[in-house]
Write a structure and sequence with these properties.
alpha+beta; 7-stranded mixed beta sheet; 5-stranded antiparallel beta sheet; 30% strand; SRCR-like_dom_sf; CD5 molecule like
Length: 340
């Protein structure tokens, strides 16, 4: 009897607890593959504290939800609507190696000292079912769609520029620049031709969200395969400091790094940058301290940047047109964030 009791106790309190009684979801993001992490226990949804939360933990969540690659580990109140204060926090810390198939296989520590301002968040990509191939750069190429485990091309007659906008976003690139019929023999597809006609508005998160129907008049050949070109993805970094969380701000646009002018720059913009980089809170240093990182060279990409503080990317903040400014590099923005 004592042995039986020990076995029951081990089953009830061992690592299988989360696996047997919990599920995982992401809440408050723009799509199902980003948001605040919530787990379900015994019919109730609760959050995870961000203690030690890192990209390895994110990789496991993204894998479990079939959400493609892990992009960012986030925390705090970024994803709305805000968590209800009466909602429970189930887990203080998760420790994943990054190769687990689901969160239940990671070590965990029950919550004991955490608030909802410390809720863990995730940004993942999408499962790879659309791609651009045979281009000179990652963000251009022949459009291919994966259906039933097989990649196929897309025909001109079933395509429009709105669909190209969706593809550019889905593959993690910037805005769509052009779409056209390709291809010479070297860049033609070889496999099947996707048998669906899409009617995208351009605002969909993925091509699979666009209304579509089987294309009855599919008499296409690979001479009519579609080609899409997108801008390079927006990115930013802090340079000249002792860590990735402090330095002169540089942003990537059209494949070229450039600086940001400090006209209208404020604390809210600092917060957006720190959050986007996965760093801690903005430390709001003095102007004199910011100058220590020195001026940049080359392009000045942004001027008159004004953020509300709720943006998930600096690109979403109000600013002049790219490359339009009345600044010198002595006015380059620098940001200092706490390290996570």
């Amino acid at each position: 009897m004592a042995l039986l009791f020990s076995l029951i106790l081990a089953i009830c309190t061992g690592p299988g607890l989360l696996e047997s009684s919990s599920r995982v979801r992401l809440v408050g993001g723009d799509h199902r593959c980003e948001g605040r992490v919530e787990v379900q226990r015994y019919g109730e949804w609760g959050t995870i504290c961000d203690d030690g939360w890192d990209i390895k933990d994110v990789a496991v969540v993204c894998r479990e939800l079939d959400c493609g690659v892990a992009k960012r580990a986030l925390s705090g109140t970024l994803f709305g609507p805000p968590t209800q204060q009466q909602q429970k926090i189930f887990i203080q810390q998760v420790k994943c190696h990054g190769m687990e198939e689901n969160l239940s296989q990671c070590e965990e520590e029950d919550a004991f000292d955490c608030t909802h301002d410390e809720d863990a968040g995730v940004v993942c990509g999408f499962p790879e079912n659309v791609r651009l191939v045979d281009g000179h750069k990652r963000c251009q190429g022949r459009v291919e769609v994966k259906q039933q485990g097989q990649w196929g091309t897309v025909c001109k007659g079933s395509w429009n520029f709105a669909a190209a906008k969706v593809v550019c976003q889905q593959v993690g690139c910037g805005r769509a620049i052009l779409t056209r019929k390709c291809c010479n023999k070297a860049t033609q597809g070889q496999g099947p031709i996707w048998p669906r006609k899409v009617s995208c508005s351009g605002k969909e998160i993925s091509l699979q969200d666009c209304p579509s129907e089987v294309w009855e008049k599919n008499n296409c050949t690979h001479d009519e395969d579609m080609w899409v070109e997108c801008e390079d993805p927006f990115d930013l970094k802090l340079v000249g400091g002792d860590s990735p969380c402090a330095g002169r701000l540089e942003v990537l646009h059209k494949g070229e790094w450039g600086t940001v002018c400090d006209d209208d720059w404020g604390e809210m913009a600092d917060q957006v940058v720190c959050r986007q980089l996965g760093c801690g809170a903005s430390l709001s240093p003095s102007v004199k301290f910011r100058r220590r990182f020195g001026p940049g060279v080359g392009r000045i990409w942004l001027d008159d940047v004004a953020c509300s503080g709720n943006e998930r990317s600096l690109e979403q903040c109000r600013h002049r047109f790219w490359g339009h400014h009345n600044c010198k590099h002595t006015e380059d923005v620098a940001v200092v964030c706490a390290e996570q």
